[in-house]
Amino acid sequence: MRERVLKIRKLTSTTILTITGLCALWGIFWLFFIIFDLIRHGIASINLSFFLEVPTPPGEPGGGLKHAFIGHLLITLGAISLGIPLGILAGTFLAEYGRNYRLSNVISFLADTMVSVPAILIGAFVYAIMVKPLGHFSGWAGSVALAIIMFPVVIRSTEHMLKLVPWTMREAAFALGAPYYKVILQVLYPAIKTGLLTGALLAIAREIGEAAPLLFTSFNNNFLSYNMNGPMASLTVTIFVYAMGPYDYWHTQAWAAAFVIALTILVLNFIARIILKGGKH
Amino acid sequence: MDLGLGISKKWDYFVDKFFLFLTFLGAILVPLSLIGILIVFLKEASLAIQKFGFVSFIFSSEWDPVFEKFGGAVPLTGTIIVAFIALILGVPIALGIAIFVSEVCPNFLKEVIRLAVDLLAAIPSIIYGLWGLFTLAPIHARYIEPFLQKVFTPIPLLGKLFEGTPLGIDLFTAGIVLSIMVIPFTASIAIESFYLVPRVLKESAYGMGATKWEVIKDVMFPYCRIGIFGGIGLSLGRALGETMAVAFVLGNINNFPTSLLTPTTTVTVKLANEFTEADKDIHLSALFYLALLLYIMSLFIIASSKYLIMRVRGK
Fold it and tell me: Which of A37, A159, A243, A259 has a CA 20 to 30 Å removed from the CA of B12?
């Protein structure tokens, strides 16, 4: 009797543990399925004119997404120049000047929460505060929306990195009579520069694939535009529009754009990992 | 020298205070923007709130831009059902992965699987959506859904779930895509909490003759339940607010779903599709009303799960 119970217990354990292995396989299966599909469809339609030409009139196959590449780049640069400095400043307050206040803990928690706010709501928010009062969609509005998404990510990584710096390092600088801002700018920031860079790269990797916040802010544009005050095309919104559109060549171009975005994110993550590993030695 | 030092000290003092002010300004932007979003949504939605009220808005399923009648019942139910399906399918898988990584698999596989989980999280939602539309939906329509219909139709209650024409653009496809997307959130937090279980606790259970599964079920799960709840909450938050992945494969039809194979809509899909086309103030205001409800809902869920996770990490 006891032997049988033991056998059943062992069998249950082995069965369930095997199932957990299948779970892992399930996750990896989908990952490979998606990546495989992305490469298969993406590579097929990537050529030089995809990067260098503007779209043909709807219905005429050919052309490229130069307008979306330029737009995406400009919107992202705008977002980076807004979101990253602000995030670093805020993270500095939480880890340094404000480290003893309860308020800092609250803000740090709120920043953590803000990371997960649905991206489309950020888009709706920026629509209400920028697009509606100004009366038109604009690349800047897109930048602001993306900056709001990056901002809490950068705060968290900056705060985390600063808290890893041993307190004695600050004390050594204080003992030489350095004021706090000099300690931060000349001792702490250099000490965590690889961490800051990694954090920035990961924040960019996070926002570069966002489409939802751009739908109502930078909107879309079928023409090449360098004007950040007007509606602007982006790769992600173009993917949405093209995929939902009726033409086959639109679909292949959407795949190609998705491939480029995924590759960019992969490279950014990869570089961030390498920098982080290099910094640890 | 003395004078110079004095001036530079004063200068340092001012610069220091100025820098303090700058960093404080950055930090205070966090609560300001969270509250700002709430206020802006309230203001933009005020027209719809006045016209439709709260109870009649969330229980009315009418969405008629021509006659200016708006109710949020369909998108709100859609949001909750899609998220529910995603969690039912995604959370057990995620927990399975976490158990496999922390207890079962050999060391060299651990890194590989964790990398795979990270990559699943790094893929942007628009790519999930594109892939769902062009790859998964046709497969579902052609093979999976007819198969499920064949299997489940004879069964009384379950058969109802799979009624309808298998088109691939439906709750089922959206649920599957979302379930893949939410895996990393629960999995990574669960892996992290499993590692926090003290060795002694597990060893003593093994010492009493418990099998591996019994240790996981009776020692590790109870010990990690707060963290796991937190992880599931994060997955839920993601599922509620996900837009692009669902927008491709759910259709945007303002009807209650009658089975898993019917298209419907969610708050996010409605926003994505109608926001820029709303030419009447009341239409836009109703959309902002939906955004407001989603914001409150997800903020509450995210904040409570982050709180749980924070408690686990602080322990």
Answer: A159
Q: How far is CA A196 from the centre of its chain?
A: 15
Instruction: For chain B, positions 116-175, list CB contacts with chain A under 8 A.
Output: 116-120, 122-131, 133-135
How far is Cα A173 from Cα A247, in angstroms, rounded to an integer?
64
Q: What is the pLDDT of residues B16-40, one digit of tens each?
A: 999 999 999 999 999 999 999 999 9
Q: What is the mean pLDDT of residues B40-47?
A: 96
Quote the distance between the C-alpha of residue B3 and its chain's center. Answer: 61
pLDDT in tens, B264-296: 999 999 999 998 888 889 999 999 999 999 999
pLDDT tens-digit readout, B161-176: 888 888 889 999 999 9
CA B1 to chain centroid, in Å, comes to: 62
Inter-chain residue contact B40 with A129, CB threshold 8 Å: yes
Q: Which residues contact A22 (CB under 8 A, 6 or more apart)?
A: B96
pTM, to two decimals: 0.93
- Chain A contacts of B299, Cβ < 8 Å? 113, 117
Closest of B181, B221, B202, B174 to residue B93, by C-alpha: B181
